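Bit of a strange request maybe. I'm writing a small parser for structure token strings and I need a real example to test against, not something I typed by hand. Could someone generate the tokens for this chain?
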Amino acid sequence: MIERILIADDHSIVRVGLSIMVKKLRPESLIEEAVDFKNVLDLVKKNSYDLIVLDINMPNGSFQQTFEFIKIKQPDTKVLVFSSQEESVYAIRYLKMGADGFLHKMADEDTVRRALEKMFRRGSYVSENIKDTLVSNSIRSRDKTTRNPLTTLSTREMEIAEKLIRGESLKDISTELNLHSSTASTYKARIFKKLEVKNIPELIDVFRFYEGLIN
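Reply from user aminoacidic:
Good idea to test on real output. This should exercise your parser:
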């Protein structure tokens, strides 16, 4: 049976590079590409995939809504999250959401190849660093003083916090995520309360500190 693979990223050079690597590992596979979240949704509605390599930050939609749609529409499809976000902060979050693997965009060629091979063979992939983090978090789970406050944010709250950090207004966030303006404001208030910050500069400081703290 020919494997069908979807590579979703808004940068053409990334899609081309991944396609070349996939073809080396699976010469007979059928590879398709998506340039944004809407494109992903349209293709998933029409076709079934064995593996989807999914970027986190793309236009025309949100990662959470797209990911949830994939898992509902095609529960057997394996999803490898491909992101430039800090692995130690975000990888476990996406794995808990139901992703089958997390690969950092700065990974070298050998690491990318190993990740793809494991996705094909086992249907899952996590780096050694994340395995160590999972063990460490398990050991420290009862010690509240070591808890990373970013883990208290829901996936939607984390998504909105990232957009706030990037300088996006609540109006833009509401439009992009298809939220009512009051809902977006409520999310912002929850984020500030959970992280005990009063403004965007303090929010940025919290993210900068904890992303650098956990390795």
